[in-house]
Write a structure and sequence with these properties.
- The protein is α/β, with parallel strands linked by helices.
- It folds into two domains: 186 residues, Rossmann fold, CATH 3.40.50.2300; 143 residues, 3-Layer(aba) Sandwich (Rossmann fold), CATH 3.40.50.2300.
- Helix content is 43%, strand content 19%.
- The strands form three sheets. It has a seven-stranded mixed β-sheet, with helices on both faces. It has a five-stranded parallel β-sheet with strand order 2-1-3-4-5, with helices on both faces.
- A hairpin with a 2-residue loop joins strand 11 and strand 12.
- Helix 2 packs across helix 11.
- The longest helix has 22 residues.
- It is globular.
- It starts with a helix and ends in a 5-residue tail after the last strand.
Length: 393
Amino acid sequence: MKKKRYLFLLVAVLLVGLLVAGCGGAKETPQAAGGDTIKIGFLGAKTGGHAHYGIETLKGMRMAVEDINSTGGVNGKKLEIIEGDHGSNSSEAANVTQKLITQKVSAIVGDPTTGITKVAAQICQPAKVVLLSAGAVGPGIVEIGDYIYRDTLLDSVAAPAVTRYLNEELNWKKVALVTTTGLPYSEGLTSIFKSALAECGMEIVAEQSVMEKDTNFSAQVTALSQKEFDGLIFTGYYTEGALFMKEMRKQGLQQVMVGGDGLLGKELYELGQEAVKGSMLYAGFAVDTKNATGKTKEFIEKYQAQNNGALPDMFAAQGYDAVMLLAEAMKAAQSSDPTVFKEKLAKTEGFQGVTGTITFDANREPIKSPVYLMEVKDSPEYPVKAVIPINVN
């Protein structure tokens, strides 16, 4: 009897040990769970004030997944997008990021904005999930950790190039500068523009600040009307930019606005109409119909076929390239485990994307050229005004 009881207890202990080994020990990485597909998370806004950025990024991601799956997938598996919508809300973005991680995604593409990318990166880094932003251009992104990447042209590269163009080609000497206070993207871009303006010997004759979701800018524009300047540098987003320009025209100021890809969106034209004509904005991708070839031309044509003839913008193109970069790294590593393929991703060199050639430097920052400067005319599809080359050496 005692012998049987002893054997029973021994078997029970062994079973408990096996269960503990299965549930505890080393933490399971997202890909370790296996599955029939490789999951790529989308983090962005499909609703709210920044919905344009998210919707276009997602369109590009879907196109990339279609192209990859139609040619056999990655390492014998199909890609699957797991979508999250944070509604343009930072606190909800944290919840969406955490949910995507619990759904065992191998990587997350997003967010298209700098501020929310920083929020998501603080969650992805300790969770050992690769985050690749297809839009964040401000400072302090990749410094968060070695699982954090982006494939967009950096403001620190683009803004100085555009500033030189304004000075040398358009003969601007004096500017007014407007910052969206509390918006990391805008505050970071303002800092970069200030350094670039100083280097070019250009004078900031007036500075004003606005808040996101403000709609009344009469006081700020009245203050600017007391100064003489060649143009306005606006470092915030398209909604406030459009309304600010309407107030400038209302008060009789005729200077044009220049800004970064935060102004990129059909809403700039739809809200501003006549007031924003002549405004300029830069991005790491634009439809240059005269020079588009190869993958870029194919991407543009496919996007148009799926979107009633509309042209793709930077967010769609960089969303496409983001998925392609992840897929190439997974293939090179023969693994979709982020702890494995991130090393191949970091060594990306000479990747031929639809937005141009991409190489990650030693800090995992994308080296890209050129800068596309676009001008607002009579529609929300902004033609290229200048293609400004960047020395990437």
